Amino acid sequence: MPIVVNDLRDYLKWLEDQGKLIRIDKPLSPVLEIPHFLRRIMYAKGPAVLFENIKGYPGWRIAGNIFPDLETFAKVLGVNTLEEIGERFTESISSAPPTRLREKISRLWEVKELASFLPKRVRKAGFQDNVIERDPLDKIPAFKTWPLDGGRYITLGLVVTRNPETGITNMGIYRVMIKDSHRAVIHWQIHKRGSHAFREAVERNEELPVAVVIGADPATIFTGVAPVPYPLDKLLFAGIVRGKGLEVVELENGLMVPANAEIVIEGRVQLSKLENEGPFGDHWGFYDMPIEKYPVLAVDRIYHRNNPIYVGTIVGLPPLEDAVIGKAVERVFLPIMKTIFPEIVEVSFPVHGVFQGLMIVSIKKKYPGHGKKIMMGLWGIGQTSLTKMIIVVDHFINPHDINQVIWAVTSFADPARDVVVLDNVHTDALDPTSKAHGVGAKLGIDATVKVEEESGREPPLIVSPDLDVERKIEKLLLELGIRGDDPWKKVAKEYIDTIRAWLGVRGSYTRYHD
Ligand SMILES: Cc1cc2nc3c(=O)[nH]c(=O)nc-3n(C[C@H](O)[C@H](O)[C@H](O)COP(=O)(O)O)c2cc1C
Hints:
This protein has helices at residues 8-17, 33-43, 70-76, 83-94, 101-106, 193-204, 218-223, 234-242, 321-340, 370-380, 402-412, 452-455, 467-479, 489-503, 507-513, and strands at residues 21-24, 48-51, 61-64, 120-121, 130-132, 153-154, 158-162, 169-173, 176-178, 183-186, 208-214, 247-250, 256-258, 263-277, 292-304, 309-312, 344-348, 358-363, 389-394, 419-426, 439-446. It has 514 residues and is α+β, with helices and mostly antiparallel strands. Helix 2 (33-43) links the parallel strand 1 and strand 2 (48-51).
């Protein structure tokens, strides 16, 4: 089923009908006050909020915490689980002409089944009703979240670019720092697609047209965070997430942007100028230091709908709204990761590891060294290459159960043999431990059970009850009304099945468990 709402207004009404939105009419400022309110709501796992009385910005409204939880996001997308969105994408790839993955992705436009997901160009959009050319950045209620932030920031804007080399349109959520009434600095990190487009423009010595889109339907906003495989156009990807094509309209600078936007900032990134960006209190919970230089967006004009709704999010010590957004990425991209690495069974990015910090992945281990092989694969592609720590466990360990993971790490990982440390490699630019901007170290722990070729001995013999005794005692417990499953039953059984499959008729597993 396609997404059940058309734009942000529809979505907010739908949230209200679900009991997932509150309205606040008390006058509050976007400088510190609304961000603080939203932070408390997010920690309380509360609803979305529509602020209707913005101090200093008459006629404007602000929506926040618009991704209150995963279930609500799946429901508005018309799916039972978010994995279905990833499957929509992998099914499209498998019906693409049989070539290499990269070519398949770039030829997705040609696949007939995808026709309904393609962007549709329209001539007029609601946001074109109002244009501000005088001091435009002073007119929007962008947030200042933390007292020492270097200024006001647009925190949930889709930064739209077209790569001058490939013609591929990108929409990435990167924070945008307002410098003055006409200029802003865009914090697209070096590995991100907006930054690729910028570097391409620098090589050609051409100014780069840029738009920042604020407020759209939730699927389109989500597309800005999605680590979409490189050659895929995000306007098409938005159509895949929405389950129907996105209507787009052309700006004066030639970019196509979502027609359902509330606010659109139109401008150009100048090639010669880089300016200080920050300080900014980021999602690790620290002010992002040292201050780095990023490109400057010269704003020509801002368009907005009547009685516009600005949308912002806030970051700080986890878990805040980006935890929900990050978990949505984890779920949507699991089927896509499985297509690239078929041995992957499950993946978890624990929210307190802020996504770039820690990834736990379970695999169906097939050969000696497989645990380290998957680490290297993940560190070698896309945005998982930014992950600081990877723990690999076997398929019978649930990566979302941190206690099972601790048991696997302590039981199966030998610190001298199963730990990988890489130094002087690229890292997430925000990592507070990096020795230089975007350069630091990585840790991998192979917590899979080791086969004899790796450890020189048979895997340890796991305890499991005598079957006859188990049946008898379970019956008795039931009669006594004592509930609660054996938490290790499934793990122990799958462990035994795995080891037996590895050892075949050899070894103690056959002797003890027949
Ligand atoms: C609230 C929020 C803020 C973000 N801010 C930034 C940022 O300032 N710079 C950046 O490079 N990525 C930022 N990201 C992550 C990107 O949105 C994410 O890596 C995305 O996949 C980039 O897409 P791209 O492949 O189109 O570049 C942020 C994500 C969220 C949820």
